[in-house]
Design brief:
Blueprint (H helix, E strand, L loop, with lengths): L9 H9 L4 E3 L20 H9 L11 H17 L6 H18 L5 H26 L7 H34 L9 H7 L11 H32 L6 H11 L5 E6 L3 E3 L2 E3 L4 E5 H5 L39 H18 L2
Antiparallel strand pairs: 1-2, 2-5, 3-4
Length: 349
């Protein structure tokens, strides 16, 4: 049994995130479906890998997709409002956000059938792994072990199909690029395929690209979709709040969907007089930090005004993590959700 040290203090959280030599990502076995083969983590040029994931979804590059996102949001809101029966808001938002991330990373020339398959399979993985997480939280694994096994293999089966679809898309794209055919100006997969290291050799194998795409699709679809759903719920309950940045920040604090991340100690480390041993697991509980009454007064209350002229100390607000593995999709989430909020507030309730 591996010992665990749970981190809920902002200063220690910051120390562990930023000390990349002593603490490395190490997730529970059941969640490794979304880490893929792990070969991306073995590439020496981490900065280039992170840059390839972040390039199209941060900074000025996002402006290339704003018009597309706005048109899709307007279209979806019109469709939702015309439904005679109640809609499943989470499913609709995750589907919308999946279109965004697929457009950015796969381009426009991948068949609609393939993207629909990918969306369905990611939904299957998400549901299976969320159910496993709930079984663990409720301490039901001992009585529901067969259920756990079924869910885990459901996720693995969906993952295998995702990998096969993505591998075919990558191979088709490689062949097209070799023939100098079908090049797209805005398709990040092409940049991944053509990326080279300092010696001019190809930086990423198909396997590495697949792992990267699994990460961005999961974060850009499942995690972002849940957060955006709660943004709409909170704004419906607090219609007097119109400053979108405050609403988004308060939602990310109050409803921290990525409740924890995991690190493993690679050496014995002294923190505040206590020794964390090599090999120990370190769950970082972001939700506990975000709900700490010593940091946020009346933390259960949804109060966007708490962000008036407030800049949290390092480690006190980490919905997107920190350090080298800071989530590259944070700007994409804020823009796509601001667009959704803008049109929702203007025309709907």
């Amino acid at each position: 049994m591996v010992a665990s040290i749970i981190v809920t203090d902002p200063k220690i959280l910051r120390r562990i995130y930023l000390d990349e030599e002593c603490f490395v990502p190490k997730y529970p076995k059941w969640s490794e479906v979304f880490v893929g083969s792990g070969c991306v983590m073995k590439i020496a040029d981490h900065k280039s890998v992170h840059r390839l994931m972040a390039a199209p979804i941060s900074g000025e590059a996002l402006s290339n997709y704003v018009d597309y996102m706005e048109k899709e949001v307007v279209k979806c809101l019109e469709e939702w409002s015309s439904m005679r029966e109640p809609i499943e808001l989470l499913n609709e938002i995750t589907s919308l956000y999946f279109k965004f991330i697929a457009r950015i990373f796969l381009g426009t020339k991948v068949s609609g059938y393939s993207t629909q398959q990918l969306e369905r399979l990611f939904s299957d993985m998400d549901l299976a792994l969320l159910s496993i997480f709930l079984l663990i939280c409720l301490d039901l694994l001992s009585t529901q072990h067969s259920r756990y096994t079924t869910l885990f293999f459901t996720a693995l089966k969906a993952l295998k199909e995702v990998e096969e679809i993505l591998n075919k898309i990558i191979e088709d794209k490689r062949r097209a690029l070799e023939r100098n055919e079908g090049r797209e100006e805005l398709c990040q997969m092409e940049a991944m395929i053509e990326a080279t290291d300092e010696n001019g050799a190809k930086l990423l194998s198909n396997r590495a690209i697949i792992d990267m795409l699994i990460c961005v699709f999961h974060g850009g679809n499942h995690t972002a979709g849940h957060a955006a759903m709660w943004v709409l719920i909170h704004i419906s309950d607090h219609p007097h709040v119109f400053q979108k940045a405050k609403i988004i920040n308060e939602t990310l604090r109050r409803t921290t969907f990525v409740s924890q991340t995991f690190r493993e100690a690679k050496a014995n480390v002294n923190i505040n007089g206590y020794i964390i041993r090599k090999g120990w697991s370190i769950p970082i509980w972001h939700r506990v930090v975000h709900m700490d009454p010593q940091i946020y007064s009346d933390p259960q209350k949804f109060d966007p005004s708490r962000w008036d002229n407030y800049i949290p100390k390092a480690g006190a607000f980490t919905p997107f993590g920190m350090g080298k593995l800071y989530c590259p999709g944070n700007e994409l989430f804020k823009i796509e959700t601001a667009i959704l909020l803008h049109h929702f507030l203007l025309h709907y309730k």
